From TrEMBL:
Signal sequence residues: 1-23
Source species of the chain: Paenibacillus monticola
Protein name: Copper amine oxidase-like N-terminal domain-containing protein
Keyword Signal: yes
Alphabetic keyword roster: Signal
Signal found in the keyword field: yes
């Protein structure tokens, strides 16, 4: 959820990953920013390919969804689209509507003036709540109150398509209930339409991730070259510092776990499970270098690094590439310890290797 997205953004700043620069990037910077948000009508999540959007901070609703609101009528003619409510009408124009993905969207404030609905945008859930009846208002406000009681940024999962460790497939978070400080539940709906309840009392932090997070990982990191850090990879199938590439991120179809798929130069694909307690961006940079680590390293030393050996004459950073972080460092006597091996340095190079 948001925590993962923020950490991913920080990663991009550190490793220099970004979308291609150029004219398209400059044009995009000047264009309106569209953010898709969830839509609730009378407390019910609208699951649709057409989602409401935030455009530079203002909420807009797809005209396609308005036929699900009792009391609103939509009339299309050659002269344009007119929306009519209980107290007035509004014709779409450049001031009260936008075109997004080839569909008309009407400003939420314009809808409020028509008298049929009321509602509000909830930033804590990145969702738009609208109601047309007293019952719908009560249900919506109960949901909004329950969202305010959710821990951390959990509210941003409400109304979203999510994946969960231990639960295959995707799920929609359709509702939230707050009973007391120790009893909070989410109503989930899976791909088959089956509704089930997630008890947050037993929920483990960061075991849920949104479809948006998964897509962002794909968009930014897929196809990027990586170099294996065998000192950090348990039972590594790679040769140390082997160059590979990130093929994909996916939700494992059998477990729901988040995985990264690494493609080796020979075409072999290695699926690696990302622990639920880790954030995926840090996981990638913890196990792989994102930039070529070989920098003015001699062929002899590089061959030793690839074979995970340490030889006399290596610099500390070259030892690190081969064996990773030492178990201990004695700066006074200029040696480091890896298990039962002591490496002594003179003039910042390995001078003597002693194995106990």
């Amino acid at each position: 959820m948001k925590k993962i997205v923020i950490l991913l953004t920080a990663l991009l700043l550190v490793i220099g990953l970004s979308y291609p620069a150029g004219t398209e990037q400059a044009d995009a910077a000047a264009a309106p920013v569209y953010t898709e948000i969830s839509t609730f009508i009378d407390g019910k999540l609208i699951i649709s390919a057409s989602k409401s959007v935030l455009v530079n901070g203002a909420s807009y609703v797809p005209v396609k969804l308005l036929n699900q609101i009792p009391g609103l009528t939509i009339a299309s003619a050659a002269s344009g689209v007119t929306i009519t409510g209980t107290t007035g009408s509004a014709k779409l124009n450049k001031d009260n509507s936008v075109l997004y993905k080839n569909s008309n969207y009407v400003n939420f404030k314009t809808l409020l003036k028509l008298g049929t609905i009321d509602g509000k945008y909830a930033s804590s859930a990145v969702s738009l709540f609208m109601w047309s009846t007293e019952e719908g208002k009560t249900k919506s406000n109960n949901m909004l109150y329950a969202i305010s009681k959710l821990p951390g940024t959990m509210g941003q999962a409400i109304g979203k398509k999510v994946y969960m460790y231990g639960h295959p497939g995707s799920h929609w978070v359709t509702d939230v209930q707050y009973i007391d400080e120790t009893t909070q539940t989410l109503t989930m709906q899976n791909e088959a339409g089956t509704v089930w309840t997630l008890d947050l009392t037993n929920y483990e932090d960061n075991t849920m991730y949104t479809a948006e997070t998964l897509q962002l990982l794909k968009d930014v990191i897929n196809g990027h070259a990586v170099w294996a850090r065998n000192s950090e990879i348990s039972n590594s199938p790679f040769k140390n510092m082997e160059k590979a590439s990130v093929k994909d991120f996916r939700s494992n179809p059998n477990s729901g776990n988040l995985e990264i798929i690494i493609r080796r130069a020979n075409g072999q694909e290695v699926n690696m499970n990302i622990p639920p307690s880790a954030n995926p961006a840090e996981y990638v940079t913890g196990l792989f270098y994102i930039e070529n680590p070989r920098n003015a390293i001699s062929d002899k030393v590089w061959a030793a690094i690839r074979e995970e050996r340490v030889i006399v004459g290596m610099k500390p950073e070259e030892v690190f590439l081969s064996w990773g972080t030492p178990d201990s460092i004695n700066e006074d006597l200029a040696y480091v310890v890896y298990g039962n091996v002591y490496l002594y340095f003179i003039n910042n190079k390995v001078y003597y290797i002693y194995k106990m």
